[in-house]
User: Fold this.
Amino acid sequence: MTLPPPPPVLPLCSSQVREKLAMNTDVILRLDVQGAATVREMIPGATSVFVCAESEAALARRLARRGTETPDELAERVKTAREETARGVGEFDYVLVNAEGKLDDTAAKLAGIIDAVKLRRGRGAVTL
Assistant:
């Protein structure tokens, strides 16, 4: 299955989210753990999905291959990811593993989560 490319990640304000929710449009936000906590406070009906690498070692390999950070910066990124993973696993509704080389599978699983949430009995409209 080939999925369309994701939309660009743009700064988004609450009025834009409110507008999309009013149109009954799915809204997907790419956030860190702290941002997701803020959204859960603002939108109690929101569904959260924590996306992570299959392991800390796999994440470190991916980041190192990019070559965009010094070894110290890389170590800090991995440390931050470790902390966010520990927190995210407990705070998010779903945890989705994005295994290396399996982006299409990960995207399909995310689409399945979205479909399942929409089909959940008793789920009302989500508002901001």
